[in-house]
Write a structure and sequence with these properties.
Four copies of one chain form a homotetramer. By secondary structure, the first copy, chain A, is mostly helical. Chain A has two domains: 12-78, Orthogonal Bundle (Tetracycline Repressor, domain 2); 92-200, Orthogonal Bundle (Tetracycline Repressor, domain 2). Chain A has helices at 14-31, 38-45, 49-55, 59-78, 92-108, 110-125, 127-154, 164-181, 188-200. In chain A, helix 4 crosses helix 6 (110-125), helix 7 packs across helix 8 and helix 8 (164-181) packs antiparallel against helix 9. The longest helix of chain A has 28 residues, at 127-154. Chain A starts with 13 loop residues before the first helix and ends in an 8-residue tail after the last helix. The structure holds a DNA duplex.
Chain lengths: 208, 208, 208, 208
DNA sequence: ACATAATCGAGACGGTACGTCAGGTCTTTTT
DNA sequence: AAAAAGACCTGACGTACCGTCTCGATTATGT
């Protein structure tokens, strides 16, 4: 049925795959996503164009994989197989501030900024890519929050009548909002303010 | 200062400008931003390519202006000079729910979705364009919120120790977050939940 | 040495080359040289523009090659490997009239006129192209004359103290002069007159 | 009937006409004919494009007029209204050599070469322009030859049975041939050789 | 160990769009 | 009324990449 023979991935050249990842990330960092071309990646990686077209459907897909691979390798280097989790010291506000500050630092990291923005932008337009972006890069992080928030609910630190996934959005969304729209600088102070205000509530009067 | 001598805008053809706006919006709606080309816009508008290059620096800039113009014209038609403002019934929660629901509807409007996403995506990558996007399209809306929130502070509905601009972000960011990332459906119920949780606070215990 | 890396001519598509020749000659014949464009040739040949730019430096170069190829193919078809030569009947005047009349017919041929004029004109302005024009299209013909004239010198039909190349110019130049400048019609009678006058001399008295 | 209003030439600006001539000649000299544009001429002359389009049908026509004007002005400066004529010393060969050498020098003059070649080339392709070229620039010169040759016939220096116009072509064509085709250098020696050989004849035997 | 088949590097190919240049027409303002 | 200025539509320029395709020249098993 399919006109395309599926390539045999067991024969795939690892050298080429790696070289393509490196070239893609380097070019996006140097020239920006728009000025990065498949032809350029191939040339830089010392690879035939077809080798890229054989394994990826689009420039965005290449960059996505390269970026995920980057994260995976970084994780392997740092923690030798360790899991990440949000600390649970019993003080929810303090724990959240810690991770949100880390998120702020990550978003402000000039090295990862270009590819992250490129992928986010592409994902906004292309739903399939966006889903992949969320699934591969965002969800794992999100899950950590959900876990911590659920434990907070059990400890009575967090209202029972709230879906942890919504709570999580209320905390994270303001940060991504500032980062994406560049309305105001994204600082640790802002992260702290978000945690405080969100937990405490904006309303002044007593609300049940 | 500029290497290019600025064209004389007093001689500019209004017919062409309008036709370019229309063509740009139509094409983005029909084929998507990526498949919309300057050449295509020119052809559809019955205009020379140079007329586009003379007045705009990029495809995104054309679309941006077209979109702003669309909003302006729509506003002129609807309210004959009327100002928009968030209602102030004395019930802050209800008022906010009203406008956030309207925002939800606007974001879900299939007509404006394609160009809005395109501009947002482009703005994420290009800071200059992003600034324009924020300034021309977002800020006016934002200002309405700030006004209403400040009045709420005066009325004792809102804590005094909070910057209205931050409050505004806590309310709006979750909506744009869902819209951009398509994590979960963007509904009126969600808008209501955001208002309730944000005003009331996530924390269960008493906080100073 | 060259800033452009030379393409690999062993991978060159013969189908495209032929199609380009045909399209170029057809368009020059139909619309004239000035109205013939590279874009038009590519479209007519069903070929990408880049395929032309890859192998030729200019429109004139394309036409030149197409024209040379035309001659080559015509020659191959006609005489299956035969050499052309000016006949040597012993009567120099008669032999020259024969070939000059043939030249007249060739110049008057409406099929080849447009491209020939175009190439001549281009060669007048561009020395490199002119050299190619002379070398590829004129010199072979000229050489035939030189051979015949030298044999005439040996046979005592032609003065010894004259360079055959100059003699050749005296015979041919008047024809090309009329053809290029269109001063007066180019006829067999004129060819005959040129031969007679040139051989006999214009002077009436005896000259040393 | 005519859709174009004929412009009123009595109101024509002489300043502009002159400036256009100067600009055209300068640009052709500096950049070559192909790289000279109407827009460029207008800009250099400080003139609106329409002023050129109003009075000339083509770039070639502008250059032609400019060139003719150049010749006219040069002539007026040099000989204050004097006629040019080929000297008639009684020695036809010597007289012809004199003028042919002058022609050689003129053709070799680097200042006039670019425009002359440009006009010649254009005239080869465009019959109307070619006719003008011949009529305005060549014929006057030619007429001088015809006069001198006719006088030579009367003096018995030149055969009676030859049309002076043909004789003229036999003398001049070899020079233009070399100049146009750049086959061999165009020298005084060549001019002399042409005169000698043409008058004396190429044939070695006695011909009636 | 070797045949054999897929992958690889390279890059020519038919295309599309780019951003620029100039052509020739038209309109506005100045002289 | 002609001229300077220059915006406009048109169309070609030469370039950059697209995604497909064909080439040898390596691999990398599976007999």
């Amino acid at each position: 049925m399919s006109p395309h023979k599926a390539p045999d991935s067991s024969r795939r050249s690892d050298r080429s795959r790696r070289a393509i990842y490196d070239a893609a990330l380097a070019l996006v960092g140097e020239a920006g996503y728009a000025r990065t071309t498949i032809e350029g990646i191939a040339a830089r990686a010392g690879v035939g164009k077809q080798t890229i077209y054989r394994w990826w459907p689009s420039k965005a897909a290449v960059l996505m994989e390269a970026f995920i691979d980057l994260g995976t390798r970084a994780a392997e280097e740092a923690g030798g197989g360790g899991d990440y989790a949000i600390p649970d010291t019993g003080d929810l506000a303090a724990d959240l501030k810690l991770v949100l500050r880390a998120t702020v630092d990550e978003l402000n990291d000039p090295v990862t900024e270009a590819p992250t923005r490129a992928l986010a932008a592409e994902g906004i337009i292309d739903p399939a890519l966006g889903a992949q972006f969320v699934e591969k890069l965002l969800d794992p992080q999100m899950q950590l929050y959900v876990t911590r928030l659920r434990s907070a609910q059990e400890a009575g630190e967090l209202r029972d009548d709230i879906d942890p996934r919504i709570a999580l959005e209320l905390l994270i969304a303001p940060l991504t909002h500032r980062w994406l729209l560049r309305t105001l600088p994204l600082t640790h102070a802002y992260a702290d303010a978000v945690v405080d205000h969100t937990l405490r509530g904006l309303g002044s009067g007593p609300m049940k």
